[in-house]
Design brief:
Structural class: alpha/beta
Helix content: 25-40%
CATH topology: Alkaline Phosphatase, subunit A
Distance between the termini: 48 Å
Low-confidence stretches: 1-25, 158-165, 179-184, 216-226
CATH architecture: 3-Layer(aba) Sandwich
CATH class: Alpha Beta
Mean pLDDT: 81
Number of helices: 11
C-alpha cells in the first residue's frame, strides 16, 4: 500500500486547501451512547471558494440590485420566497422544504475575516471559529473539535476524514480518528481481501476501509473531484448511515464556488450539488432522524455586490448561509438586510455584514445540544457575543 494509506488516531493539523479538488470529504463525530449530546444531529457543509450569496438569495426587492448586476440579475428569474427575495433556480428543488419550514437563509452574514480576501485565510478563520483579534491561521483547532473538548464524556466514536487533508473544523486535541487513503485505491481483489482480513478484528477500521473502497471505486474521492451526482449520493449515504446510528455531528466540504467569470454557467453546477446534498440527506435520514437534524452550509466570505466585466463576481465580504433540516424553524429569512445603496456597501464594494456566521452556529449548538452559552462565547467561539435568541430551532 502507499505511504499515505493510514489510520491516524489524533487530529491532523494544517491549513484548508482552498481550490484543491480533493479536499477532505467526510468527518463524523459521535458520542458514547448518544450522551451527552442527546438525539439532535448537526451537519456542517463547508462551501469552499466563496459562494455568491447575492445570486443564491437574490434581493430583488432592493432597488439597487439590478443596477449592480446588469447580466446576473435577470428579471423574474429564480423562485420567489418572499416579496423581497428569490432563491436561485438552481435550488428550485428545495422549494417544498421552504414551504414545510425546513429551509431558511441567513442574509448579510460573514466571519470576522476582513479585507485581504484570501480563500486560505478565510477558510481557516471560518473553521477555527475565531474573532477579529485572532489572526487567520493562528488557532490550529476547529470549533467542532473544541466542542468535543469541552463536553465531558463525548468521544469521537466515528470521526474520520476521507481525502488528502483533514477538515480543520474538526482538527484539534479531542480524540478524532482520521483515515486518509490515496485518491485512488488501485488494489487488486486479492490485496483488498487481505486488507479486510488483516483488520477483521478492528470493526471501526475494517468497516471504514470497506466503505472507503466503495467511495473511491470510481477513481478518486468523487464528490469533490468529479462533481457527479452519483458521487454526491455516495458521500451523503455514507454520512447519513452514521447519523442514523450513534453519530451526532457530521462535516464535509463541497468545492466549486469561486465564480470570477461566467458565473451564470458555473454557479448552477455548484448549486445542483448542494441541492442534491440536502434532498438526499432528507431522503436517507428518513422522517424521524431528519426531524432532529440541522444542516448549516457556510462559506468563507461573500462576493462583490457588482458583477465584473467577465460575467462573474470577485471576492467580497458579506454573504449568505443556507440552513435546512426538520429541526429548523424555517420558512423565513434570518438576519438584518443592510441595503445595496452606495453608502450601504462595505468599502463601497461589498454587501455589509450585519451578523457573524458564528452566531448562527452557536445558536444551533445551544438549541440543539443544550450547550451552555458562556461556554460557547468563551471556549467554542472565543470572543463571540451571541446576542438575542433567534429561535432557530423547533
Amino acid at each position: 500500500m502507499q505511504r499515505r494509506f493510514f489510520l491516524k488516531g489524533s487530529a491532523i493539523l494544517g491549513c484548508s486547501a482552498a481550490a484543491h479538488p480533493l479536499l477532505s470529504t467526510v468527518t463524523l463525530a459521535g458520542s458514547d451512547g448518544g450522551r451527552p449530546l442527546g438525539d439532535h444531529r448537526l451537519v456542517v457543509v463547508i462551501l469552499r471558494g466563496a459562494m455568491d450569496g447575492l445570486d443564491v438569495l437574490r434581493p430583488y426587492g432592493d432597488a439597487a440590485y439590478a443596477g449592480l448586476r446588469p447580466t446576473l440579475a435577470v428579471p423574474d428569474s429564480g423562485v420567489a420566497l418572499t416579496d423581497f427575495h428569490a432563491m436561485h433556480q438552481g435550488l428550485g428543488g428545495l422549494s417544498t422544504l421552504w414551504q414545510a419550514g425546513s429551509l431558511g437563509f441567513v442574509q448579510a452574514c460573514s466571519t470576522p475575516y476582513r479585507d485581504k480576501r484570501s480563500h486560505f485565510a478565510g477558510q481557516d478563520q471560518l473553521e477555527a471559529g475565531t474573532g477579529f483579534d485572532v489572526p487567520a491561521g493562528a488557532v490550529r483547532d476547529g470549533w467542532l473539535n473544541r466542542l468535543l473538548q469541552a463536553m465531558p464524556g463525548v468521544q469521537a466514536e466515528t470521526a474520520y476524514a476521507v481525502g488528502r487533508e483533514a477538515l480543520p473544523i474538526l482538527s484539534g486535541a479531542a480524540d478524532v480518528r482520521q483515515w486518509a487513503p490515496e485518491t485512488t485505491l488501485d488494489l487488486s481483489p486479492q490485496a483488498r481481501l487481505l486488507l479486510e482480513q488483516v483488520y477483521h478484528d478492528d470493526p471501526i477500521f475494517q468497516q471504514a476501509a470497506v466503505e472507503a473502497f466503495e467511495l473511491t471505486a470510481s477513481g478518486g474521492m468523487g464528490a469533490e473531484a468529479s462533481g457527479k451526482l452519483a458521487d454526491i449520493d455516495r458521500l451523503v449515504d455514507f454520512t447519513a448511515a452514521r447519523l442514523r446510528d450513534a453519530t451526532r455531528i457530521a462535516a464535509f466540504s463541497l468545492s466549486g464556488w469561486d465564480t470570477h467569470k461566467a458565473q451564470a454557467k458555473a454557479l448552477p453546477r455548484a448549486l445542483q450539488r448542494l441541492e442534491r446534498v440536502v434532498l438526499r440527506m432528507q431522503e436517507q435520514l428518513g422522517p424521524q432522524v431528519w426531524g432532529k437534524t440541522t444542516l448549516i452550509a457556510m462559506t468563507e466570505f461573500g462576493r462583490t455586490a457588482r458583477e465584473n466585466g467577465s460575467g462573474g463576481t470577485d471576492h467580497g465580504t458579506g454573504g449568505t448561509m443556507l440552513l435546512a433540516g426538520g429541526a429548523l424553524r424555517g420558512g423565513r429569512m434570518f438576519g438584518r438586510w443592510p441595503g445595496l445603496g452606495e453608502s450601504d456597501l462595505y468599502q463601497g464594494r461589498d454587501l455589509m455584514p450585519t451578523s457573524d456566521v458564528r452566531e448562527w452556529a452557536a445558536w444551533a449548538l445551544r438549541s440543539g445540544f443544550g450547550i451552555d452559552r458562556a461556554l460557547l462565547e468563551s471556549a467554542i467561539f472565543p470572543g463571540l457575543q451571541m446576542g438575542d435568541d433567534p429561535a432557530l430551532l423547533l
